[in-house]
Design a protein that fits this description.
The chain is built from ten helices and eight strands. It is of the alpha+beta class. Strand 1 and strand 2 form a beta hairpin. It starts with a strand and ends with a strand.
């Protein structure tokens, strides 16, 4: 007869098997997540950099994790690698002219000169997303944990759809719908306006419209003394009137 005992706290989960093998399985989720967070904060430890938004803000990641977690990221990284190989092959046209010189270098005595090699890091431009949204997207992909508020939920919802992250998409949709309430709906609509061409965004706006039919006061509630219509709220108003309500923490490991 065997007995299994499971222990769990905020840092780890372990299971002890009382068979002859005396097996213990330890899952230290917290340490793994923290290590990955640290890696993302150190550019030298990462091998891909995304230049995000019009300001081209650099956000770093690991190709292996991104490619394994998202088919779209895999295709994006693969395309960039092929692009770099093509550019390198074009450079080799002039390089081949110096082939004889290189052969001489190979048979000559070693020197301090180092031959150029292909860069090991990729740089990819991503202009469609806000920096705060893309940072959270990469944090979720690498660590399985993401914090979402009313200002980033619509961006993450669309990013999850585009990068085929079904679990994140479903969680963001549920949270976005939960934000359709008087104290948050104004900020939700302002955020949605930034992704107005998206199918999911239009579905969310229709959801808001349907709920407002049954709750006419929803769109006229002014918790911060707004005098303008909800649909006319600008991005500056949204940024200057942030609320700490509507915070979501999801963990998927």
């Amino acid at each position: 007869m065997s007995y299994n005992h499971a222990f769990q706290d905020d840092c780890y989960t372990s299971c002890i098997n009382d068979d002859e093998s005396k097996l213990m399985i330890l899952k230290d989720k917290h340490a793994l997540c923290e290590d990955l967070k640290y890696i993302l904060s150190v550019p030298d430890l990462c091998d891909v950099t995304f230049l995000v938004g019009p300001e081209q803000h650099p956000i770093h990641g690991l190709r292996a994790i991104l490619a394994s977690r998202s088919r779209i990221f895999y295709l994006m990284i693969l395309a960039k690698e092929k692009e770099m190989k093509i550019k390198d092959s074009q450079k080799k046209i002039g390089f081949m002219k110096k082939l004889k010189q290189i052969r001489k270098l190979l048979i000559s005595k070693p020197t301090n000169k180092v031959l150029k090699t292909l860069p090991t890091k990729l740089t990819i431009s991503v202009e469609e997303y806000e920096v705060s949204v893309f940072e959270r997207l990469l944090r979720y992909i690498h660590c399985g944990v993401v914090s979402v508020d009313v200002f980033t939920v619509v961006g993450l919802l669309n990013a999850a759809e585009n990068f085929e992250l079904e679990c994140l998409k479903n969680a963001c949709w549920e949270f976005a719908v939960s934000c359709i309430r008087p104290d948050l709906v104004h900020d939700l609509i302002a955020s949605a306006n930034e992704y107005s061409t998206s199918k999911l965004t239009n579905q969310l706006l229709k959801e808001i419209q349907e709920i407002s039919y049954n709750q006419p006061e929803l769109l006229y509630y002014t918790p911060r003394s707004r005098s303008c219509s909800t649909l006319d709220v600008t991005d500056n108003n949204r940024r200057n009137n942030k609320t700490t309500n509507g915070f979501l923490m999801r963990t998927v490991l």
